[in-house]
# Entry
Amino acid sequence: MDQSTEAPPASLAALVPGTVTLVGGGPGDPGLLTVAGLRALEQADVVLVDHLAPQESLAHCRPDCEQIWVGKLPRGEFVPQERINELLVEHARAGRRVVRFKGGDNFVFGRGGEEWQACAQAGIAVRVIPGVTSSVAAPALAGIPVTHRSLVQGFTVVSGHVPPGDERSQLDWSALARTRTTLVVLMGVKYLPEITRELRAAGMAADTPVAVIAQAGHPQMRQVRGPLDQIAELAQDVRPPAVTVIGEVAGLQLG
# Structure
């Protein structure tokens, strides 16, 4: 059988000096980093890396590659987004091949859009190498399909970094409770009691299955399952990063 020898798309083939490449590292296991993402790390002159990116993958960088930690640890070290944007522009303007390396996918609550805009305003070209998003990967690693024939025909991904009712929240939790889709909540561990209480008040059944998956893709991965009206208590000792899956699929026991 003939095999294609066609070259990969130019946007993924080789890094160009003076540009920024946004690389999604996946949910944590270095094996889930894409081949294109790995190739970008191998070519980079500078890598700006987050704490959730697979750190083992940095071993593939050249010995002379400059690695700059720019993570945002909860209640810990914190590099402001504005400074990250400045670093991307500074190094690209110096003619370097710059990689912005973070966990999951840069465009799923990864602020990749903001970084692209900052570079574009400075006249810096940007490429994107998508990553495996934890919103799908974490449930899958726990044996939970976010869609499943006869159970659910879609899934909705939201951020839970602010609680329902907070003036910063842009979500209509009542509407979310009525979508009849799988609800995947990222960054929602801290406010799980408020989120589940709001969903119950909006009419979601108390026995709706819920799964909280912590450290997905890591050796210490853990999952806690229970009904909507009990999950906050059952998962009270879970620490981020964690993904919460709400809906009938969270009751499946695959594998």
